[in-house]
Amino acid sequence: MRILSTSQVRQCDAFTIAQGISSIDLMEKAASVCFEFIEDFLSPEQEILVLTGNGNNGGDGWAIARMLHHAKYKTQVICANDEPLSKDSEINKQRFIELGGA
After folding, report:
1. pLDDT in tens, 32-73
2. Please, are residues 66 and 85 in contact by the beta-carbon 8 Å criterion?
3. What was the pLDDT predicted at 81?
4. Fewest CB within a 10 Å sphere: which of 28, 40, 42, 63?
5. Is 57 helix (H, G, I), strand (E, B) or coil?
6. What is the C-alpha to C-alpha distance for residues 89 and 95, in angstroms, rounded to an integer?
7. What is the dihedral of CA 6, 82, 76, 36, to 10 degrees?
């Protein structure tokens, strides 16, 4: 397995976005893969706490939480700081809230 540095991940993201995939769609795909992994190991009866930050990694967390909530997992989210959220993170937070997430 190849492990990328932070700089390499940013370069991959930038390349993918330059190819015409929006950052929010890229975030959705990453969250979807993570959700599928979680679904293989946890049952909906388990409570899940998602800790997010204010940047795009936080946006991934909000998207994962939304997918878990939609699949009837008992899901709560705590944002680790009170800084303004990135644009994509705010979008995913609002999507989570619109589904009734807390």
Report:
1. 999 999 999 999 999 999 999 988 889 999 999 999 999 999
2. no
3. 84
4. 40
5. helix
6. 10
7. -20
Report how far apart, in Å, the C-alpha atoms of 65 and of each of 11, 31, 74, 90 are.
26, 9, 9, 13
Average the pLDDT over 6-30 and give the result: 91
CB 62 within 8 A of CB 95: yes
Any idea which fold 22-98 has? Rossmann fold (3.40.50)
Please count the residues of the chain. Answer: 102
Tokens of 52: 């997010």
User: What are the structural domain ranges in the chain?
Assistant: 22-98
Cβ atoms 44, 77 nearer than 8 A: no
On the question of pLDDT at 93 being above 90, the answer is yes
Q: Are 54 and 27 in contact (CB under 8 A)?
A: no
The DSSP call for residue 48 is E
Given a cut of 90, whether residue 89 has pLDDT beyond it is: yes
